[in-house]
Amino acid sequence: MESTTYALPATPKQIAYARALALRNQTLLPWEVQQDRRSLSAWIDAQAKMNLGAQDSRPTSKQVAFAERLARIKRRAVPDECFRDKGLMSKWIDGNK
After folding, report:
1. How far is 74 from 96, CA to CA, in rounded Å?
2. How far apart are CA 14 and CA 41, in angstroms?
3. What pLDDT, in 10s, does the model give residues 6-57?
4. DSSP label at residue 80
5. At 8, phi and psi to the nearest 5?
6. So where are the chain's domains?
7. Is 6 within 8 Å of 37 (Cβ atoms)?
8. Coil, strand or helix: which one is 29?
């Protein structure tokens, strides 16, 4: 009795999601990964986690609105780099309350 395991093909939904992640992360989706449901699932998990930190680094719209309100009151400009980094925006707000 020979025990062989068969790889299940990836579903169309998996492939569509993987392509969207590849586009978002600006990476290639390997052909070999698309052939097996398990390996595609592992690739999707890795790609979904990869860029989460980058998306969260920009300040929220509430932070920006509050900083702009403070800037008007203090008659100052919010530095451009604060609009690119949530931590910098938070420090600028704390320093100008």
Report:
1. 8
2. 8
3. 789 999 999 999 999 888 888 899 999 999 999 999 999 998 888 655 556 8
4. G
5. -80, 140
6. 12-54, 61-95
7. no
8. coil
